[in-house]
Amino acid sequence: MSEFEELIDAHYQALYRFAYSLAKNPDAAADLVQQTFCIWAQKGHQLKERNKAKTWLFTTLYREHLAIARRSRRFVDSSADEVEYQLPTHQDDNTRTLDGKRAIALLSELDETFRAPLTLFYIQQHSYKEIAEILEVPMGTIMSRISRGKKQLRQKMLTVPSGKINNVIELNPNKAESHG
Amino acid sequence: MDKEQAQFILQSYRPNGSDALDADFADALCMAAKDTELGEWLAVECAEDASFAAALSDVEIPVELRQQIIEAMDMDQVKVWDQDQTREMGEDDALDKLFMNAVDQLLPPRGLRDQLLTAMHLEQAHKTVTPLVAQKRGLGKVSSMVAVAAAVVAGAFLAYELTSLAPSSDQLFESHQVQHHAGNFLQASFEYDVEDDDPERIHSWLVNRQLPAPTNIPQALKELSCAGCKEIKLPGEKRASMVCYSENTDANIYLIIVNNADILDRGLPALSEVCVKDCYHCKVTDCSCARWQDAHNTYILLKKTPSGQKAELMNYL
Question: Rounded to a whole number, what is the distance in angstroms from the first to the last CA of chain B?
Fold first, then answer.
C-alpha cells in the first residue's frame, strides 16, 4: 500500500464526517474530502512535519468549505427543506434515537460558529489545541465555542420538530452546582 | 481555579480519555476528583459526550469514497476548482490562489467575558512569542532585552512565514502576512527612512521612489501629525510603505500601504465600509488591525493596543 493510500485510510472517514457536518450534504461532503486529498497530492510535499498531516488535512478541508460557502454566499444555515431528507423520521413516542444521521442533523442545526469546533471535538481525534490550529482561532475561543456549542446542541436534542420538549432528562452543565 | 472555571475547561475534555495526560486539564481533573458535585457533573458530561461521539462515528461512509479519492489523484486529469474558472492541473499559480484565498478572517464571539477570561489564562501559558515589555515611549524606541528577544523570535517566525513560499517576482502575499512582516519592525528598534511631520513631503518621497503612497486615508488620520515613513521590503523584490502617525508621545499609529498587484486579498471593504467587525487583534504582532482597499492599494492600519481594545481603531477610521 502506498504512503498516499495509508494517509487516505487513516483520515478519510473522519474527514468525511467533518465535511458532512459542514456541508450538510453527503455528496458535497464527499467532494470536499476528494478536493482535500487532491490538494494534498499537489501541495502536501511542502509540509515539513509529516506528523502534521492530519491537522493539515482538516485545516485544508475547512478552508475549502469556507471558500465554497463564500463563493455561493451561503453562510447561513440551510433551510429545513435542504436537510429534511437527512433528518430521522419523527417518532410518535417522542423518543429520539441518536444515530449518525441524527447526530449530523443536530450538528447541522447549530450556529455556523459552533458546528466546526464541536464536530471536531466529537470526532475525538483532535485536542482542543489541535482544533484551534485547524480552525485558526485562539485556543480560548475554541474552548468557549465548544462550551456554548454543547449548550446549543443539548437544547436542540431536547426539542422535537414540533417545538415541544421531549421527556428525556434535561442535562444541565451546571447541574452539579444546583445540588444542595 | 473555581468550580465554574473547572467546568468550563472540562467541557473541552474528550470523553475517550485522550486528554487524560494533558497538563491543561490536570488542575480541573484534580478538582473534579476531590469535589463530589463537580465529579458527578463530569461523569454526566463525559457520558453525554461519549454518546454523541459514538453516534457521530456511526455516520455511514460512502463505500465508494475511498476508491473515488484514489482515482481522483490521477494527476493528469484533476480539475482545479478555481473561484473564477476551472483550470487544468499543473498551473501552480491557480492552485496557490485557490488555496491561499480560502480562509476568511475568523473572529472570536463577542461577550462571555468570564469564560474568555478563564480561557485567556490558558492562552497566555501557551504563547510562543514573548509579549513586549510595556513601553513608556513610542514603539520605535525599544531598548529592553526582552523586546529584543521577542523581536528575534518574531523575526524568525516571520522569516519562516514569508520564505516558506518560494520567493519569486510573481510572489503574492496575503495582507495578514504583510501585516506580520511590518509588525516585526514595530517590535524592535528601527529608523524611519524619512522623518518628517509633513504628510505632503512624505507622500512625495514615496511617489518619487515608486513606493505605494496613501491616497485613501481616513480624515481622522489626516488630522494627526506624521512622524515619518519607511519602505518595507518584501520577498520577491516587492515593496510596501509604512507611514507613522503620531497621536501623542506614547502612541503611534502605523499605516501600511501595499499595491493591490502584490496582494492576494480581494473583497476587503472600502474605507467607507470599514466597521468594528473588521477590526481584529493580531496575536503575532500584538497590534489591533484594520484593513481596507481601494482601486490601487490595500491599507493596513496598526496600533499597539490590548486585545480587548481593538475597537479603538475606529477612532481613526
Answer: 40
